[in-house]
Predict the structure.
Amino acid sequence: MPSDAPSATESRPDATYRKVLYAERLKNARRGTMLRATIVRGFFATEMLMVFGLGLYVWHDGTMARNSDRLLMASSLAIPILDMPAMFLVFVRTLSVRDPENIIVSAPGLAIIYLLMILFAVITLKRWHVALTTVVGLILTNVFAGLSETRADFRIFLSLDIIAFGLVAMYVIGRLRDLLRITALQQTRRERLRRYFSPDVAGWVEERGDEDSTDTRTITVLFCDIRGFTGLTKDMSPEQVVDLLKEYQGAMVGQIFDNGGTLDKFIGDGILAYFNAPRNQPDHASRALHCALSMCKALDELNEHRATRHEPTLKIGIGIHTGPATLGTVGTDQRREYTAIGNTVNVAAHIEELTREIGGPILLTESTHQLIEASTGAELLPQTRIRGFSEPISVYRCSP
């Protein structure tokens, strides 16, 4: 039987499905084990002399399984292997003393109890388990029907009932597993959306269901980078570098999401984000500038914490540019990401590079500045050439 644990070669949706399925089985097994143990303990309380060893096993099964996932998963086998034979023995024991008119202690009565056990086996979400329970119930019902001299036509009727009930139970398991698979796919999709979008934008995209579409529109791109990152981290251990990036990126991404921006990707110590996609934002340029100012403020607060830990402070440069770009999901089935493609992204990255030469943490282009209605207090700098472009461009410097 295959393991429920996801393997390294599985796609993320399949791995999530198997994880959800395993968790659901484990939860059901825990509840089922305790319920079964409680029922069997009470039932056999009056049969202690006959089934003392059985009662001891059930107590051990119900008590110890709570502390072991493997025991919990294995305990579900107690229904066809332990509970059904035990019920059969109880019915056989009553054959010599039973009232012939008593429908409970008869082949139909035993069949009804076995049907309930098959229904109980559905919580394992395993077809083979239901099939095993059905086969055991079918065999034991027919054996008891023979011992109790039940009519042949009635035996056939009981057998067909048990078989039909088992098939329905296996169909129900299939439907439940389909629902779990859909849930796992939705969970994977939701996690993917939340990697790129702020929570409200992620919810909007999820409702529309169009995160895989391609669109060309005007966006405002923000590119942020830590100045002197290589020199800052050259004497750090890999663990320290990772901790630094986590702390820094957490503070910066929070500002991007707070302003309704979309996180495109992390590029080493760089952060690429944009505004006006996938959701329309008429004030996307203003949002980008406000986000940049908020990032500088968040960095000041972060540096205060770093200073108390006697760690070097961080400096950043932010480049902002507005222009057309194509947005959509790119990649393979194994790795896909929603990203912005076009010259606008390259310009924003080059503008960020200028912050090291010109000075000032925030630089924005003329195309962005024209779209900002409120006064920015930005300083217009002499036209500047940027790498990869023959014509100089106008750049504004904005201070926090």
Q: What stands out?
A: The longest helix spans residues 152-196. The two ends are 62 Å apart (CA to CA).
